[in-house]
Amino acid sequence: MVEKDDLSGPWEVTNVLAAPQEYENDRGEAQLGEFQAHTLQIRVADVPGVLQQVTQVFARRGYNVQSLAVGPSETPGDSRITMVVPGTSESVDKIIKQVKKLVYVKDVEDITAVPYVARELMLIKVRCTSSQRGELRDLVQIFRLGVIDVGHATMTLEVQGREDKMSAVADLLEPYGVLEIARTGRIALTRESGVDTKYLETMRSSTGIF
């Protein structure tokens, strides 16, 4: 017989891209008991196949990568991978040690517990008649969106910000008819200023500023 404790695990952690009301901690990240979403920064050499090597380490251990973003770093020839994976602090520490053993991995850091700033980019295409363009322009101003394409019956918007902003905008646009969504996944950098991230999130929640 399967015990109740055996059914809990990192797969239960709500995806960070889910609706904001499901978030539980001060950075808008989902967590359940001792499991929570960890934001990892991995610096690798820019060589073919390195991304597959990194993701295979997580796949072999049953980790579900909730967010993945890759791009050039500040050092020529290096790339920075930002990943969000669920797990306990102990289990994530163990998998970090495994990733560091890869030949082309230069550095791995779990920035979950330190002040950091995180953003994401989303492109969303919605149905839009000529009579609805005024309504959508109002939403564009309120949420500080960008209009990047206007068709005869569609409008494509650009959204930048945190995951809860993405979810809020997508929910508001749902009645118009969402046709396509493309998202980059989370990118993040630590705050060298040491500004208290929890305080900033509290201020954003109280003022309604994304």
Explained architecture:
- With 210 residues, this protein is an alpha+beta fold.
- It has helices at residues 50-60, 89-100, 133-143, 163-173, 197-207; strands at 31-32, 35-45, 67-72, 78-87, 105-110, 116-127, 146-150, 154-161, 178-183, 187-190.
- The longest helix is centred in the middle third of the chain and has 12 residues, at 89-100.
- Helices cover 27% and strands 33% of the residues.
- The chain contains five helices and ten strands.
Secondary structure topology:
Blueprint: E1 31-32, E2 35-45, H1 50-60, E3 67-72, E4 78-87, H2 89-100, E5 105-110, E6 116-127, H3 133-143, E7 146-150, E8 154-161, H4 163-173, E9 178-183, E10 187-190, H5 197-207
Antiparallel strand pairs: 1-2, 2-4, 2-5, 3-4, 6-8, 6-9, 6-10, 7-8
The profile of the biggest β sheet is: 5 strands, antiparallel
* Shape by Cα distribution: elongated
Cα-to-Cα separation, first versus last residue: 47 Å
- Number-wise, the strands total 10
Structural class: alpha+beta
Rg (C-alpha, Å)? 19 Å
The overall average pLDDT, rounded, is 83
Spell out the helices and strands N to C. EEHEEHEEHEEHEEH
Given as residue ranges, the uncertain stretches (5+ residues, pLDDT < 50) are 1-11, 19-32
Proportion of β residues? 25-35%
Count of DSSP-assigned helices: 5
Q: What is the helical fraction, as a range of percent?
A: 25-40%
